[in-house]
Write the C-alpha cells for this entry.
Amino acid sequence: MMRTDPLPDEPLLPVFSSSNHDAEWEAMTIKGILDASDIPAMVVGPSVLPSLEFQVQVPEHDLERAQQVIDAARAAGPSAAVEAEAQGEADAGVD
C-alpha cells in the first residue's frame, strides 16, 4: 500500500475518541495500526490533563479505510497484533 498524505486544505477527522482512563494508550495503539496500514494519523489530546478526551485523526479521504482497518484489528484481537508486529520486523530485517 502507498501512503496517502492529506491534501493541503483537507480536514483531519476523528476516527477514534475516548476519555477513558486508558485513552492515551488506546489512541497510540490505533495510531500504530493506522501507520502500519499507510494511513497518516495524528493523536490529539491533552498532555497535562489526562482525564480529557484523546482522539486519533486521519485525513478525510482515509476516514472509511481507517475505520475498516481499526475494526479488522479489533476483530482479530491481540494475538494478530503480535503476529503483525513480528512480520513487520521480519520484513524490515530487524533481529
